[in-house]
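Q: Can I see a sequence and its folded structure?
A: Here is a first one.
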Amino acid sequence: MPQASPPMYARVPLTELSSADLDTTELISVDLESSTSQGSLSATSTLSEGYGTGAHGMYARSPRGVAAAEGGRGERHGEERHEGRRHGDHHLELFESDRLVDAVGVKRMGGGYYSPKSPHESDSLQVHRDQDTVPSPGKLGTLTGVYIPCVQNILGIIFYIRLSWIVGIAGVSGSLMVVAVTCASTFITALSLSAVVTNGAMKGGGPYYLIGRALGPEVGVSIGLCFFFGNAIGGSLYILGAVETLLDAMPQMALFPPTSVTLQTALNASEAVINGTIAAAPTAAATVLSVSRHDMQAYGIIITVLLCLIVFGGVHLVDRVGSLFIIPAVLAVISVFIGIALSPDAESPAGLTGLSISTLVSNWLPDYQTTNANGIPDPNGSFYWGFNQLLGLFYPGVTGIMAGSNRSEALRDTQRSIPKGTLAAIVSMTGLYVGSIFLFGAVGVRDLLVTDRLLTATIAWPVPAVVQVGIVLSTLGAALQNLMGAPRLLAAIANDSVLPVLNAFKADSDKEPHLATFFTLVLCCSFVLIGDVDYVSPVITMFFLLCYCGVNLSCALLDLVDAPSWRPRWRWHHWLVSLAGALLCLTIMYLISWFFTVVCLTLAVLIYIYVSMVGKAGDWGDGVKSAYMQLALRSLHFLGVSQVHPKNWYPIPLILCKPWGLLPPDAPCHPRLGDFAKCMRKKGRGMSIFATVLEGEYSALASPAHQASRVLLAYIDSRQCEGVAEVMVASSVKRGVGIALQSMGLAGLKPNIVCFRYPESWLQQEMSHIPDTFVSLINDSNTASKACVIVKGLDEWPAEGCKQYGTIDLYWIVRDGGIMLLLSQLLRSRPTFEACKIQVFCIAEDDIAAETLQLDVAQFLHDLRMQADVVVVTMRAWEDVVGDEDGPEAELARQGAMEAFTRARKNIARMIDIESPSPHSTAVTTNGPETSGRIEKQRSAKQELPARGGNGKGVDEGQVNKFLYTTIKLNSIIKRYSKMAALVLVSLPPPPIHHPPYCYMEYMDRLVDGVPRLLMVRGYRRDVVTIFT
């Protein structure tokens, strides 16, 4: 008998599959990996009754293909395979070279989604299966993963041993108010939690993960650590409650003698209502025994260690044990309700009236009073219990709503389980509390409620042991949930690598955080040593309320910003409701204890500051940055393109880092450039834009430009300049700066000052391209209506903290809108120049005009609220020295001026020879590659240069001599009057029309010669200062 041939798979285009075919196919898994360095991809699939893949595309095993395969290996089947290969194998060929589109877009058809692992990890793509389509094995559902843990935490010690006592103190009305306030805060928090949870995939960490991704890592870590403390300390609360109940039920287990309190008047004034008749209450003194605090401490430590051993066994062991703990708790509640319905009986204590309207009315109003340390009413007691104090005592009874989100990494579907399970637990437990308040208020007189703190066991049916066992197991189950959630929360915070001090607590998601569990054990034991439930309760209440406030603020911020990524599946939310919930949580904190509120908020603020200082948080895409983005967009829209009023003018400098190519290639910019940039801000307010131009083609230099931007940004951060880095790729520096001047900035936040270093050594290094670039930068800045500041002596610029003394001299020659005056004030506001005195030098034509000019300028500075001395220098001041006077000083000045003039003329003649287009001219030396078009443009311009020894084609040689004379004269005045100046500011003259760039460079060299530290400032066509208020 011939052997059956293996089934054949026909390659069928996906677009040709019918709906019936699609119903019978199933995509199992798709994995995508890079196959070559060029980015080509190969797709591999594991098939089971479904899709497959070939060498070039996807195919499916459809009924049509199977029928063809079973028909034999004939020509028809071969044609079908050929047809399938021709049409179906190349459908995705267009996208094969794009790894991002293929991974995120194409593979989405296979049920995968893109999920980055962590903000601090690599940007490599990972394709996961959708949680809705492929349930994870071993994960927990809504009932066991959320509802039962929440009920175990909520239905804890407060319900069994404190609720009846609270009804006795606050009355039915006051107790209902306490439940209404507390449950309202948790219900609103659950709504906010549901909205944030359903907005995307959620990792481990519970509320920390939500708050951190909404309010930023600093706020997330600070509130997350506080919530960790609340969970760890909350375990001690439940453990102390279990020990108190156990020792009350079995006093023979006590290791230390109990505390006794004798009541003389507690029952004297009471009247009991039995079967509708009033009977006299006992008047004898009564002795109340309380559990020793040392017993609470000893047994509490033992139970804490045993519970932590269970936690070490893993989350599944905790779930098994927790499920066993919840059954006795439910039976205990049922036993209490049956006992209330059947009371009173022959063995009922005095004051147990059974359900009675008269008793309910008598217990309706509150009776706030003082008690002793054991909660027994005592007129001389040291503890007063009012509404605020009872609010703090009861609140831990509703703080279990985060039990499900704390184990988010163990849930099968967080977006479905957390909202449903949490809200169901809150609604059911709120109904239980409200019903119990009415039942407790109607079953016994007030004195019985306030003296029997274990009334639930007293009235239980059939025996008190049912409730006592239920209390112990229920509270231990709640403690187990806290001790299981707290270490995972700490491990989640550590896994984000925000705080290096927490790195020891890191743990993989599939492993147990043993070290974090041990730390939780130590923290819980430290609070167990307090030995009193009433003392521990207000402390954990503050931590939980702070966490709930953070969840509500997260939802309010995300809803208010309404970013495109905010698309929660949970629709029942509004930012006003969430904001009201946050305010309610803060109000409850203040009502409970303003002191503990301040302590808790202070702790959160200190953690926030610590994280901000030493933390290594990345960009989490949090709502705070989204809010900044919205605020920036609205501010830009509000500012528009209108000019800023002089009162609101801020310098936004565009700092050109390497315009001349004089720095080493690996240097992002001059080391002192950052110090200079900080001097242009007032008290740190402002922003600088550091720009660098790479010469070449963008397609070839895109990656180096990105790397250069990162290096430049690192330099900015190291200098604390509060600026941004921009790296542009252009064919030349001039073209790149021109692009930056036109396009950089938005609306009213465009740079308004162009700053760059003066090329002092250009002539020595024979870099003939620098003059052309220098003139182009000044002219382009003027064309773009931007001021210009050129720094000379940047090597000598003082470092941050290096205090300068002397004067800041301003040679105010032309009207510049007041920018030179404003810069001097900004410089003086820095600690480096705050000890310097400002002097304003003005140029007058003669002595008669000097006095009037001095008075006018002094009055103007007074109106501008600027402190400065005014010095007027006449034009004859220099001529008196170098022309008419005799003596060694005048002779030295005349000799220096003539040498400077001669040297300038020689330099100009030398540049004419270099730039001349003669056959004997040397090649132009440049710092980088020069295009043929650029060289040709330079040579075409050289035909208009002045010839040596005579007049040029377009420039009058006498005018060149006049400009040289002016700059030399002004330089002599600066060196004469500003010998002791820490810094000199002088008006920058515009480049003369038709003068070659090297002539203008020579003018500037004569102007700055011999001045160690100088700023040349050129304003633009608007005022930046005003005399009006």
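Q: Show me another, different protein.
A: A second, unrelated one:
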Amino acid sequence: MGLRESKQQDSLDLATTRTPTIEKKQQQEEEGGGQGTEGQKLEDARRETQEAQRNAHQLTSSSSEDFAAWMVSRCPSDEEAAVKEGAASVASTVLEEGAEQSEGEKKDLVSRADIAADDTTDVGESKKSVTVESPGTGTQRSEASLRFSDRGHASESSGRGSHGFTTRVSMTSSARSSFALEQADTSVNRKSLEMFLGHVSADETLVGSAPTTGTLERLSLDEPDSESLHLAAFQEVIQEQEDVYDVFDQVEQAIVRTGVPKDLWQEVCVLAVLPADTPAPLSMLKQLWARRSERDQDAESVLVRLAHTGIVKAARFPDGMLWGLPKSNVLKRIHSTILPENVLASFHRYVVKSYGRSASEEGEHASLAKVDDDGYIVSNLCHHLIAGRMDNTAREMLIDPDWLERKLRVCSAAAVVNDFRRYLMFHVHDSDIKLVLEAFQMSIGVLTKNPVHGLVRSQLVGRLLVAPLSAQGKDWLRKQQDLQAVTLAAQSESIIPISALNPCLDQAGGLQRLCLKGHRGPVTHVYILQVGTEAITASADGTMRVWDLEIGDCTLEIQAHQGPITDMRVTADGSLVVSSSEDGTMRAFELERGRCLRTVGVGGGMPLERMVLDPFGRFTITSNAEGVICMWDLGSAAPMHKFVTHARVTCMELSPCSEYVVLGTIDGLVLAIEIASWKLVSKLEGHTGAITCLHVTHQLRRILSASEDGRVKLWEGNRLKRDMENLGGSVNCMHVIKSGKRVICGCEDGKARVWDISRGSCVSVLDGHMGAIRAVTMSPYEEKVVTASSDGTSIAWKTDSGEILRVLEGHSGGILCLEVTRRGRFGVTGSEDGSVRVWDFSAVYSHIPHWHSGSIRTVSTGNGVAVATAGDDSIAHLWDITKEEFLGSLRKHTVSIRWSKISGDGTRLLTASPNRQVSVWDIAEQKFLYGLPAHQGSRIKCISATDDLKLAVICLFDSTVTLWNVETQEIVRCLQKWGQRDASVGHTSAVNELVMTKDGSHVITASKDSTLRVWDVRTGECLHVLEEHMDSVVGLHLEEASNLLASYSLDQSLVTWDFQRGEKLSRVKFKQRIKLVALSSDRKIAAALEDGSISVVLPQKHQVKEIRMHSDEVTHLSFTEDGRYLISASRDCSLRVVDLIQERVCAIFVGDCGFTCFSLHHPTQHIVAGTDRGVVSFLDISVLPC
């Protein structure tokens, strides 16, 4: 059975268990014991406790006393009493802990488990379970999951062991949590384990003075239990033991019988503190095996002796350090039975404090955060803290951004999330830790892509600004903000994370749980796998990705095709995924490792547009752009049947038992083909538009077809039963409820209509989207409907009333696909913006009402405190930059606002739209003053205004260039008339760009005729014709402080001019097209190229420096006032600052959506940036050195 199948079976097994499990003996575990009723298990526990009480006074073994003395000598003095009590009197420990586990408390345990189930923070959708954890052996599972544990993980006892030692009971949030933690543990230590196995050798000289007998054998983690005879002998001793007074003597004998030297059995016992399958360096083992002076042995020789007994494997790494790996198939079962919990916990504490003392003399948390990593401790510190009951220290580590950043770099995001989940198993109501975990998970994509020191703190602080933290949590947040300022000031030689002053990042505690980024194109398909904690997505970039929805990370990337993926299907057991592509191929991949099993290439390279897959993976059916339908045998990748429709197939579905395939064509036909005979059995005519979606019932009893003609038709056999007309245009998607009585249709007009199929009537209309609905689905219990739209939002509706429950906003592009998890708590959406987002429908609804509802096109700042943002929603927002507060909205425009400008004195604002509407506003009063009304005809192409906003020069798409008095709404002068082609008076081709000086004295125009013209505004005459470019001039930038004009052209050249004299100053040719240009006051020039790189021209040094900064289009460039720093914003969601003296990136801010524009407010050194999602970001760069 594969790993994925094991995970699925584990979820099913665990879903059946809701109560704590207390096994009687190890034999009962292996024989499937503990599956009785709750009352039987509680009675068994009481009987064991009474028996231990009767025999406790007989425990007076010299071996136990010696063992106790040795353990006490190794533990901190403040723990001697606890250790002595636990080690010297095992039975008394049983008595005390067993007495506490009264029947009433056990019942209370069940009720607390139910609370934990409702308070889950996991994305996993399996039913909740109570697990028990024994420090040192990792997370233990209920008896239902023990059947799974033998498939790759050592079996571990839970509840009471054979001697009645009570383990620590935890309230895990998900049935898969224990498996997830074990998988995370394995992942965390996988690198060191693989390195260890790569250096294990049979060479006796590897480990120094090794005994002459025995060799080091290479260990395979999947090898069978070769020590089963020894283990059986050990179990026999325990089972035959009637009294527990000599348990340590018997344990010693049993361990010696496994081949362990008699004087080393104690060293073997304490190895239980190591996580499973985790090698440990000799430096760690020295601290663990430190002994009394009279019994002192060299730790290396101890490791060598244990290696030659077969209990431990040894290997020497290239750095010379010797490492040891205990064999878990023996040690796990022995250690879970031998050591009392409090004794084992003391050894975990001893390990932690030993590393803490070696780090520094500071406080415990501070010293541990700075501990030197020996390849072991950073990965496993939280394991020892939790197992050692040092929960407060573990909590301090989890809220320390520096420690989280260090562990992320050393290990992985999964390792960090694993630590949080391990802590939350015992502190399910620690809401602050949950919020910090959520903030970290939302930042994983940013942190892994941008390994910048301090970025973890910056992201956590930015995502918790409005989160519902407790009073203690708010104090911690303020402390982190102060530390952030101090840290940034000290990072003069490294990249500084820019601080967000407002909640512009997605906030923890809201509806959005995860933002999964990695695809470089639109996400077209999403499918949640059966385990409920993984999703697979397909993209137009030709890749598929598997995402861990608990961790928030990509676990598998499949480079599937050379072209966009057109369809993706997964088999019923989730083991196989098949995709089709525009590159003309179909490929089948196994989901365990992403290995390609079959490739089918269609002749002629004809793009495949639709595909269906048999749920059992036996065959697949494809259609190409010419309407050719082919059936393929996945076992041999050979074609089985072929059918030609002579019309493009727009949708395709299989009947429930794969007996028929139903096709919808572009000309409105519905065709049904029998799979067995491959004959056309039904041809349904009636639609007048292309078929968009189909629903098929068993044996073709019913077919529902939806079309671009706005109709949904119900067919029974070959007869039309119902014809339901949607008045909202094309039906893009539909979902049929389980009973088959109603269908929900998503329409082009942004409304979803619920139809009663039996009556053919519309029951309700769900109206809330601003764009066409692309996907619709329901929760499993059908209590809510979820729709996704091209407007970038998804809405959850109450099924019976049509009430809006949640509006999910976060994508910057239209949503293309949507899935809901098995229990309906979470939704997963894929978007045109390339991101996948996970939403929690049960979260407290949070919405910041002052963001724009569309992309922000322009940001304006002046000398005052007011800032203006405007964009596609046709609304201008005013903000106070000193307080980061919203002031008000200015509403008059009817279409997108593309241009804005604040007057020099900061009292007025000009806004302009392409429909020729120009408005001037009083900022203080927030009212309209004057402007130009909207006009029909040619639209505005570009506009520029004077500093007092009274004069504006406007260029229309018909190349008319007109100077307006905005205040009087009068035309002052026409510089270029429509249709004018006389070179003596103006341009001979279209005008692409223009700019006017602040005082309104000059206007410069750039044209497709490859020339620039400088106009005298007062007379309307052309003063200079600037000719240097060889192709169309597409952009201009004017820096009046230095009397410098820059122009760039399609010929990839950039020319600087003294525009008043009409003289060329310099010309630079680039290898790529120029997208943007910026000029500084000291005549530096920056050009953003089409590949995202930026070239900076330094005239003083006569150099051109190319700086790689962004992975996507650069949308805005600007220099600081002194010209030292260059700021760039990009659609790759980052804003970066370059220090031109040091010639390096010195600061960075990474958001959740692409930046479209920004403005630098010079008095405060604050940046106000707009995004393609309508979010306004206030960023502080005042910490940069002057």
